[in-house]
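Reply to dn_fold:

You asked what the input looked like. This is it:
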Amino acid sequence: MNVPLNERLDRAAGPPDAAEAAALWAAYAPRWTRRNHVRALAATLSVPLTGAGLLLLP
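and this is what came back:
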């Protein structure tokens, strides 16, 4: 999910000034953080769901 964002940021590496770098990061960070939280929540929920599934096996 984050690979396209990371690649876009990597292609823009080495902006000529700090203002452009700050603008790139300001556009990148919120989307990356939101997607990272979704991925962490999915991974966290998968553990108890897997455990429940294993307990319910005949």
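The helical segments are 3-11, 18-55.
Hope that clears it up.
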